[in-house]
Amino acid sequence: MLKLFPLYIVTLVLFHLLSIKAFAMEIQFDNPNHVTEGRISNDTVMGGLSASQLDSQQGQNAVFSGNVSLDNNGGFASIEFQLRQATPYSDRITLKVFGDGKRYQLRLKTAKLSFGEAYAADFDTQAGQWSEHTFTSTDFQPRFRGRNISAPALKFADISRIGLLIAAKQQGPFSITLDTLVFDSHI
To answer: What is the distance between the alpha carbons of residues 29 and 182, in angstroms, rounded to a whole number?
Structure first.
């Protein structure tokens, strides 16, 4: 009986660890069951001249592209998706994109933030290549219009909206292909 007890404990621990991993979730940006249609917001809301669009068909990757203009104090283009399901507990997320060599900002929003605020993390793409970018919650800073703000600690399970932003005076055409965002645990 004593020999079986440690085996029972090990089995329970392994089951628990495997069940945490089973709650991993993959968001496909081209899947209307995963996200709503992307909502574009460019600097035109402030008089700028940047333009962008989303090309998305189910079964094909979503492509966010356009042109960033610095005219009229402009300089940004962004898109935001609402999640159609709750995200699981996770301690990391991995974004897979096909890049253009520019820097983007991954923006996560929760119900605990006010309008316009987001948890943001920058990442660099490789021109003409697929890349994966893995983040933990500590990689994100709460921001509003480019400034750091005070906000509750980010929990990936609270995320309801996902966005991308291109800014930082990166004038000219841009194009980023959005494949997946995976919520998981590295345990």
So the answer is: 11
